[in-house]
């Protein structure tokens, strides 16, 4: 009796091996990552994913927002009374200060008018809230609740009430990702407020520490100096506080000094930050003055004028010569006839 053969191998073991599948999937994943990094093929997918998970971020942030709202609206009467008394005292002190600063303000206004000062560097400001914080200790990134619908753009500077906070790295439809100045991948051009020395403040992965790696031992900087944004690069406006120098060590055997600073922005406790629309100053092109004519060119032009004058006089001279020849020939004929 004929019997049909059957494959006794398990179904799971059939097909390509697990190693081949792993290598294929790994190569496909690496190819997608490289292609997206170089050519941004998955930008649309990123935007769609960012838009789709926005409700999840909103739901996660909702309890904290509700808690803040309840705490703000259920403050007891005694606390409000103390705050009112404190603010009344501050208003009285500020009124006295304003009286002394009125003359200085008027003088400053006159100087600005005389100097034809330019418009304000920040044309627009927008308050935004932090919805999420990256838990990776080496990636200092936060998620903000403003995106393309609010006019946010990549590279936009961010400030808080104390100094420079960071800048936008990715923009979604309703949210955006920001990198802090303490991130190891971030650097900001700064200037020492006391001496005017310019350098770069780089992130270290520590929220309370910035590194200034490009200062030599002879640099005019010391502990306690204020670092402000220099405005170079056109990303951050000039004059905003960045940090305070906390460490300055000069080693004679090394070219560069060890300089550290502490950020002034409250990177680990800010709940709201401010987006600014910064308009960098326009750079006018250099105007090249017209070059003076050279002596050779002057000589050539003079020679050309003299040649043209000589050519203009030549026909008249030839006409006079012809007249003289005719007169002499007629006189000769008359003599022969006599």
Characterization of the model:
The chain is α+β, with helices and mostly antiparallel strands and 338 residues long. The protein has a domain at 123-278: Thrombin, subunit H (Beta Barrel), CATH 2.40.10. It is 40% helix and 21% strand. It contains five helices and twelve strands. It has helices at residues 18-39, 43-52, 54-73, 77-115, 295-337; strands at residues 122-133, 141-144, 157-159, 164-171, 176-180, 187-192, 198-203, 210-211, 226-229, 241-249, 258-263, 272-278. It has a six-stranded antiparallel β-barrel with strand order 1-2-5-4-3-12. A six-stranded antiparallel barrel has the order 6-7-8-11-10-9. A hairpin with a 4-residue loop joins strand 4 (164-171) and strand 5. The longest helix has 43 residues, at 295-337. The radius of gyration is 40 Å and the shape is globular. The model is unreliable at 114-120, 294-299, 308-320 and 327-338 (pLDDT under 50).
Helix and strand topology:
Blueprint: H1 18-39, H2 43-52, H3 54-73, H4 77-115, E1 122-133, E2 141-144, E3 157-159, E4 164-171, E5 176-180, E6 187-192, E7 198-203, E8 210-211, E9 226-229, E10 241-249, E11 258-263, E12 272-278, H5 295-337
Antiparallel strand pairs: 1-2, 1-12, 2-5, 3-4, 3-12, 4-5, 6-7, 6-9, 7-8, 8-11, 9-10, 10-11
């Amino acid at each position: 009796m004929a019997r049909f053969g059957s494959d006794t191998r398990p179904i799971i073991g059939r097909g390509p091996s697990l190693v081949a599948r792993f290598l294929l999937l790994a190569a496909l994943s690496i190819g997608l990552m490289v292609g997206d990094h170089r050519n941004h093929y998955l930008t649309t997918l990123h935007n769609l994913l960012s838009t789709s998970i926005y409700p999840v971020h909103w739901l996660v942030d909702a309890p904290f927002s509700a808690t803040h709202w309840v705490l703000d609206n259920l403050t007891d009467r005694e606390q409000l009374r103390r705050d009112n008394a404190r603010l009344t005292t501050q208003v009285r002190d500020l009124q006295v200060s304003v009286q002394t600063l009125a003359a200085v303000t008027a003088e400053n206004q006159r100087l600005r008018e005389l100097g034809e000062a330019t418009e304000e560097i920040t044309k627009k400001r927008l308050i935004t809230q932090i919805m999420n914080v990256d838990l990776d200790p080496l990636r200092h990134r936060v998620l903000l609740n403003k995106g393309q619908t609010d006019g946010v753009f990549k590279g936009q500077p961010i400030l808080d009430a104390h100094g420079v906070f960071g800048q936008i790295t990715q923009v979604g439809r309703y949210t955006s990702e920001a990198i802090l100045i303490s991130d190891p991948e971030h650097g900001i051009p700064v200037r020492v407020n006391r001496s005017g020395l310019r350098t770069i403040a780089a992130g270290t992965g520590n929220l309370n520490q910035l590194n200034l790696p490009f200062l030599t031992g002879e640099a005019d900087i010391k502990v306690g100096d204020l670092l402000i944004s220099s405005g170079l690069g056109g990303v951050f406006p000039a004059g905003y506080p960045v940090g305070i120098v906390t460490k300055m060590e000069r080693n004679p055997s090394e070219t560069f000094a060890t300089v550290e600073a502490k950020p002034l922005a409250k990177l680990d406790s800010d709940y709201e930050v401010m987006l600014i629309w910064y308009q960098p100053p326009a750079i006018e092109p250099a105007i090249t003055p017209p070059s003076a004519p050279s002596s050779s060119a002057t000589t050539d032009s003079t020679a050309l004028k003299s040649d043209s004058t000589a050519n203009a006089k030549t026909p008249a001279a030839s006409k006079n010569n012809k007249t003289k020849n005719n007169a002499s020939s007629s006189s000769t004929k008359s003599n022969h006839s006599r």
